[in-house]
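Weekly modeling sync, notes
Attendees: AB, CL, MP (scribe)

Item 1: holo prediction request
CL wants a bound-state model with fe (iii) ion before deciding which constructs to order. AB pointed out that an apo prediction alone won't tell us much about the pocket. Agreed to run with the ligand included and paste results into these notes for async review.

Input as submitted:
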Amino acid sequence: MLLIRNIKALINTESTPVQTPIKGSQLAHLPTIENAWLLIEGDKIKDFGEMSSCPSLDIETIDAEGRYLLPSWCDSHTHLVFAASRESEFVDRIKGLSYAEIAAKGGGILNSARRLQEMPEEILLENALQRLDEVIQYGTGAIEIKSGYGLTVAAELKMLRVIRQVKERSPIPIKATFLGAHAYPMAYRENHEAYIKLILDEMLPQIAKEGLADYIDAFCEKGFFSVEETDRIVKAGAKFGLKPKIHTNQFNCMGGIQMAVANQAISVDHLEVLNAEEMDCLKNSNTIATLLPSAPFFLNDHYPPARKMVEADLAIALASDFNPGTTPSGNMPFVLSLACIKMRMLPNEAINAATINGAFAMELQQTHGSIARNKQANVILTKKIPSLNFIPYAFGSNLVDRVIIGGKLWQSNK
Ligand code: NIG
Ligand code: FE
């Protein structure tokens, strides 16, 4: 048992389980208990309350001395397994090339795929565990990881098997997403049908047989997968029990959102561009809008219209999109800063979006995403800070003092 006393404020407490993702104006409501205690038993949160009711127990105790305690970040969109960084494309973009131009030349995702195809599983695993360790230090306590840098039957399976090994070694829960439809390999540029057949007839059955994925994703975008192609892939995934989480509206509005909603997607991710019709469609759905502001930050592009989305009563989650091409960072506190600074989300809205709504976007809301009795004790203890708003305000500072994972003080072993 572990007792944490004198917590300045316990953030995002839940007395009765939240049944649906937090939407619209509710996002600004962040249930908080000031001057609080938290009791952990085993790997679970046992109880919490105000200091006036703090139990006196002869057990391991942490005096939080005025620090804040939050649920760990739930990062529902990452590409954490990859072979190599892509700084040369970063420099090409500084010189004026666009992301689409680099991709059209066989760079971008195809560059990452070539490198991953050559790299042995052990090294991919080692690198991924190192990155996982890093993001846990930033306070991430649950994470989703996608394939999509394999793009051959063998390499997609290799990547998903690496994700499974990361899962087996990870102290935090991991959801795996199959993203075979990330880009068309060069050899299939003129023959989409053949690559889709590979996905449908060879990748999906084997992935299902080995139980390698929880979700299916596709990059629905001009120059990548059309709405019709994505629809086919998503429907095929559903036959194998994989629910969709879809990359769409990063650069163009093409109907990806309507298609994803019609297929009951758990989430649609990116939404740097979003029109009124799409917003309406999301409003009348259970699909979460997952925003990834580190991507437009890195690409120097424009940000999703988060304020309009809050006004339209949408459920918004925030995630990192950690990947070598558009977001070489899994730093969730920085995502929160961008959400507030660049998308004008209030700190409370951003925290809800990065915790409980992120949990919903991975279907982990029963066990993660808030401070609630019986939930997993994955929490963040901040440094001494003047207010909660200081977290997104002081961008770039590491304000996470300690993380507790599964009820234990977590220590990096890297
Ligand atoms: O979410 N947009 C598609 N996929 C990734 C980027 C992949 C890459 O460039 O390697 C993203 O931004
Ligand atoms: Fe992504």
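Recorded for review: The radius of gyration is 21 Å.
Action items: CL to compare against the apo run; MP to circulate these notes.
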